[in-house]
């Protein structure tokens, strides 16, 4: 039995077998390693250049053991796991016994653990960090009597608390995942059997499951039949490719024509499907019916497929399952996000290792001064345990709680509504960014198209002259209807007559406009959808001319917003698309007449061909016309010679317009029949089908008549210009990575002020060989302070041979624009910047094609846009508008980093000061390994006595948010990492040693007769010192900080009454105790306050100058 599966299932084991790379033989390269990019897998990143390091004992101790253990585990897993080769398969309709292929399980399983692996798995994730592993070893050592120091709960209680919180959090997440999976896996589907339909939640090949409207498709299927009369349906693919536009899918003709659904079981038919692969935009297969005479063969393509995780948007569909589980397109394309660790966490981890080294050195010194007498090794370990508070276990807890607090603040900020923090572990990364890599369409622009320009070669129409076009269209069809011999739909023949009499005769402007608008209204994949009428009536016969096609009720659906805008524009000038099905479409003229056209063939747009075409037959005249539109680079060689196309395309691109070239070709009946035979033959071939089909279509694409050039504008997002200027002033280098063409990308870069007006732009010439790349790089090296514009193809050549040199030059540019980038290249550029610059990168995008870039970056930001939510869901942070990124980085990123840096160092200081006191105490008392404070004093010190004031540092801020946005230059300081460095860390170490020494020596100098008084005086002075140090560290007071200070002090004073074991109540209420504690506290804190005052007066930080 087979259960369901969704795009985000976490599977491992079955991978596509790598196809050999098709790269040319490369000459000697300048870098050590070339790219081994597998072209069959667009998610594989090129292998970056790695500097081989010598592997010795140092390498092994510093992390090599992890690498070796990981390699051994991977090797073991590969040996135990049987690799399954993915094969093409034949699926018989309703005959499971004939299916030879075994299908993988189809259940969604997003859980990380099962009931047996949960506890070991969570513990491994925790103890793989040095900090937690260290505390586990120290806590375990307390079970050895000779190493025991104090009470067990002083070590196990904090560790147990940390683990309990982690395990509970993971358990809650795991239960939620299980519930979500269970909900998806228990969704019911109708399964067709010989005995009729029955409800199941496990669609199983080859029984055809039936899908209702708004129901998720559970597995990859071939579309056999639909309730819609026209044999097609719409599906939503936003969860698969990130696009929100509905896609039109077509049922297999043979099965759609069957009289009843039950007849699917009475025929002998099978589907041949290619082996599972990554590409969601292509499919090759055949449908064969054996019991017909002659046998029926139909070629299957992408339009006959229903991929898993898409949603049925109209009607009911019946399909036969061909791929399940790990073999579905959605799972094969699932890229698993790397586990991101913030730079601050890595820096703190390095500091904890340095502290551990210091702890060991201090313990060795203590034993060495003793003279290594007696069981010195045991004493050494006891000293290591005594000084274990140098590395505070509360560091991880405080930082994690701080990160959660920052995430809550970001989501509650009213100035950036709708912002969602999806990865709560890296908010500090927002304050360390050097490179911002942004998509163009939908990110910098709104992905809302507006028709701006129609160019006919000799005359151009803009937004202010569209009424002229409308008048021409009205007149054109009015002349036709006035002809008594012609019926309405034949109006299109009149303007074409001059051409038939002689090709050199110049057409009138009116007829050329008429031809151009008609071509734009016919050549597209747009379908009008009527919310109520179409759903009720369903029928789209040409006789429905009298039906009320309400303009208010009509919406257009297409795979591209450009297409929809072009059809909307033809409606605005008088020629309206009112109906469309698989075989025909109808246009309405300004006078209300309906023109009907039969769709003979349609050639969809692909990223390779960069054009789409349609062959239509006008019903009234029988004329066959081939219309085509596409990018200028693709169409220039197809259309007849002209002297204006290239120049006007450049002009429009400089205005920021997206251009499309429209052309046509009239076909005779014989020409079309010859083409159709060759085309159908090519479509049935199993090998190289794509190439053969393209070759047949290209035979038509010759000497086409150029009709017009259209220009559509993609409007900029709100406040893009000031936001980019803010980021540039903050020292962030912005790279724009887009799939759009060079001219449009350059224009948007200028209009958005990504490149300033007076800045030079160096357009990297197209290169395809190493020598060309070498020359062009040398030319680029001679330019200074200019923006770089480069295409994806040239970029690939440069990175293949001169990776290091190219990245070095590009990083010096104030702005870089990469156009014609594939999703893989976007991720590759992010990875290159991380490896070559060691700076933090941020990627921002809004579509499914930006997901790989977002996941590769140190910090990924997704925008909920018109292209769907895929980028938003995959990102670490989700925003609703591009302008929100300014406040997210300048205010929240800056505050998160500075607060975490202060919090982390203060928690370390809290541990170091008590360790310094312990060192002084042990050295005074003959280097005895005896603890200074025991039991509850140590637990209380790290928790209720100091926890709240220290944690209140997450509310601290040096400048107000308005000031941080007004002076983005403040952000530059953060990228240097000065808030948390070895310098600041050493300052805190010195403060801790000074204060620990003063507190301990002061208490010993002023101690009376009994040792208990030393504990009372020094511990009280320690608590007061910590509270005063928090006050010294705070830059802007918040009322909660004051509450935390007084609450902690109150807790300590209240607990004195119960701690008779440690304090003599009769002594601590005396005057001598009070003045001694006050004197020691004053000596430990007053010098630091004086130093801070002098530093602020004579060398003030940049933020204090602004606030003053």
TrEMBL record:
Per the UniProt entry, the signal peptide is none
Binding-site residues, Mg(2+): 439, 441, 846, 850
CDD domains annotated for this entry? P-type_ATPase_APLT_Neo1-like
What's any GO biological process attached to this entry?
endocytosis
Q: In which domain of life is the source organism classified?
A: Eukaryota
Question: What NCBIfam families does the record tag this protein with?
Answer: ATPase-Plipid, ATPase_P-type
Q: What is the protein's name according to its record? A: Phospholipid-transporting ATPase
Q: What organism, scientifically named, is this protein from?
A: Gasterosteus aculeatus aculeatus (three-spined stickleback)
């Amino acid at each position: 039995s087979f259960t369901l599966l969704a795009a985000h299932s976490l599977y491992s084991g079955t991978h596509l077998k790598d196809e050999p790379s098709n790269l040319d033989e490369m000459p000697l390269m300048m870098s050590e390693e070339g790219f081994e990019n597998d072209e069959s897998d667009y998610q594989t990143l090129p292998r970056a250049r790695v500097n081989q390091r010598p592997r010795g004992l140092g390498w092994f101790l510093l992390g090599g053991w992890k690498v070796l253990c990981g390699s051994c585990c991977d090797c073991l897993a590969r040996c135990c796991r049987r690799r399954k080769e993915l094969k093409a398969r034949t699926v018989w309709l309703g005959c499971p016994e004939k299916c030879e292929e075994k299908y993988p399980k189809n259940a969604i399983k997003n859980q990380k653990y099962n009931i047996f692996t949960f506890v070991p798995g969570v513990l491994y994730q925790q103890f793989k960090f040095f900090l937690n592993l260290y505390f586990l070893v120290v806590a375990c050592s307390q079970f050895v009597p000779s190493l025991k120091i104090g009470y067990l709960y002083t070590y196990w209680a904090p560790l147990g608390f940390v683990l309990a919180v982690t395990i509970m959090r993971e358990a809650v997440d795991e239960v939620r995942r299980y519930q979500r999976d269970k909900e998806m896996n228990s969704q019911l589907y109708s399964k067709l059997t010989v005995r009729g339909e029955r409800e199941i939640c496990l669609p199983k090949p080859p029984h055809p499951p039936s899908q209702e409207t708004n129901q998720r498709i559970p597995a990859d299927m071939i579309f056999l039949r639909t309730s819609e009369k026209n044999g097609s349906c719409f599906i939503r693919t936003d969860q698969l490719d990130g696009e929100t536009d509905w896609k039109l899918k077509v049922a297999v003709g043979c099965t759609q024509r069957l009289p009843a659904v039950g007849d699917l079981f009475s025929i002998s038919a099978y589907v041949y499907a290619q082996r599972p692969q990554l590409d969601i935009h292509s499919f090759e297969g055949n449908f064969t019916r054996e019991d017909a005479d002659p046998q029926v063969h139909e070629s299957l393509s992408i339009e006959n497929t229903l991929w898993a995780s898409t949603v049925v948007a109209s009607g009911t569909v019946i399909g036969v399952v061909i791929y399940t589980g790990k073999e579905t397109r959605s799972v094969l394309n699932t890229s698993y996000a790397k586990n991101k660790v913030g730079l601050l966490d890595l820096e703190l981890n390095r500091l904890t290792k340095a502290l551990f080294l210091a702890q060991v050195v201090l313990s060795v010194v203590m034993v060495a001064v003793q003279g290594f007498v007696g069981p010195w090794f045991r004493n050494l370990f006891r000293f290591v345990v005594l000084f274990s508070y140098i590395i505070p276990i509360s560091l991880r807890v405080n930082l994690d709680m701080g990160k959660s607090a920052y995430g809550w603040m970001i989501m509650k900020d009213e100035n950036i509504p709708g912002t969602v923090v999806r990865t709560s572990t890296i908010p500090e990364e927002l304050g360390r960014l050097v490179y911002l890599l942004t998509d163009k369409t939908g990110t910098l622009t709104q992905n809302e198209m507006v028709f701006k320009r129609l160019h006919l070669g000799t005359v151009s129409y803009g937004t202010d002259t569209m009424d002229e076009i409308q008048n021409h269209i009205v007149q054109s069809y009015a002349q036709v209807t006035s002809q008594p011999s012609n019926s309405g739909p034949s109006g299109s023949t009149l303007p074409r007559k001059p051409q038939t009499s002689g090709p050199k005769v110049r057409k009138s402007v009116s007829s050329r406009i008429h031809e151009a608008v008609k071509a734009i209204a016919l050549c597209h994949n747009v379908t009008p959808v009527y919310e109520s009428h179409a759903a009720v009536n369903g029928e789209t016969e040409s006789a429905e001319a009298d039906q009320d096609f309400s303009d208010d009720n009509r919406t257009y659906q297409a795979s591209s917003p450009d297409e929809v805008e072009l059809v909307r524009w033809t409606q605005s000038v008088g020629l309206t698309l009112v109906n469309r099905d698989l075989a025909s479409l109808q246009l309405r003229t300004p006078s209300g007449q309906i023109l009907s056209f039969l769709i003979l063939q349609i050639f969809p747009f692909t990223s390779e061909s960069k054009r789409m075409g349609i062959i239509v037959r006008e019903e009234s005249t029988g004329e066959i016309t081939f219309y085509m539109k596409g990018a200028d680079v693709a169409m220039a060689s197809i259309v007849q010679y002209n002297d204006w196309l290239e120049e006007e395309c450049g002009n429009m691109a400089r205005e920021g317009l997206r251009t499309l070239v429209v052309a046509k070709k009239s076909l005779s009946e014989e020409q079309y029949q010859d083409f159709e035979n060759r085309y159908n033959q090519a479509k049935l071939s199993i090998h190289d089908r794509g190439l053969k089909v393209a070759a047949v279509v290209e035979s038509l694409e010759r000497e086409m008549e150029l009709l017009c050039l259209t220009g559509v504008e993609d409007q900029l997002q709100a406040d893009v210009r000031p936001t980019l200027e803010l980021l540039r002033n903050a020292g962030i280098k912005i790279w724009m990575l887009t799939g759009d063409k060079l001219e449009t990308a350059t224009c948007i870069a200028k209009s958005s002020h990504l490149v300033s007006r007076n800045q030079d732009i160096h357009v990297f010439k197209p290169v395809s060989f190493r020598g060309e790349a070498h020359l062009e790089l040398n030319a680029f090296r001679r330019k200074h302070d200019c923006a770089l514009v480069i295409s994806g193809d040239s970029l690939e050549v440069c990175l293949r041979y001169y990776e290091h040199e190219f990245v070095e030059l590009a990083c010096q540019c104030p702005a870089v624009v990469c156009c014609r980038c594939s999703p893989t290249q976007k991720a590759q550029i992010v990875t290159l910047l991380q490896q070559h610059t060691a700076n933090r990168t941020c990627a921002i995008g809004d579509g499914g094609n930006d997901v790989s870039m977002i996941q590769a970056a140190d910090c990924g930001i997704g925008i909920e846009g018109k292209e769907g939510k895929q980028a938003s869901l995959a990102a670490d942070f989700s925003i609703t508008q591009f302008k929100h990124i300014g406040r997210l980085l300048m205010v929240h990123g800056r505050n998160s980093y500075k607060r975490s840096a202060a919090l982390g160092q203060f928690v370390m200081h809290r541990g170091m000061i008590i360790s310094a006191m312990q060192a002084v105490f042990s050295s005074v008392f003959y280097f005895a390994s005896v603890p200074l404070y025991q039991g509850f004093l140590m637990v209380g010190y790290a928790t209720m006595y100091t926890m709240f004031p220290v944690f209140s540092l997450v509310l601290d801020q040096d400048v107000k948010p308005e000031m941080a946005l007004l002076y983005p230059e403040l952000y530059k300081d953060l990228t240097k990492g000065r808030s948390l460095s070895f310098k600041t860390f050493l300052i805190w170490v010195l403060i801790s040693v000074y204060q620990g020494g003063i507190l301990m020596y002061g208490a010993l100098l002023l101690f009376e007769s009994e040792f208990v008084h030393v504990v009372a005086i020094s511990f009280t002075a320690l608590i007061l010192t910590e509270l005063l140090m928090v006050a010294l560290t705070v830059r802007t007071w918040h009322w909660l900080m004051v509450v935390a200070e007084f609450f902690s002090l109150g807790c300590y004073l209240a607990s004195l009454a119960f701690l008779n074991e440690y304090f003599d109540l009769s002594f601590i209420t005396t005057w001598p105790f009070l003045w001694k504690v006050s004197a020691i506290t004053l000596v430990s804190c007053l010098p630091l306050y004086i130093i801070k005052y002098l530093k602020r007066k004579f060398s003030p930080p940049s933020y204090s100058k602004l606030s003053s």
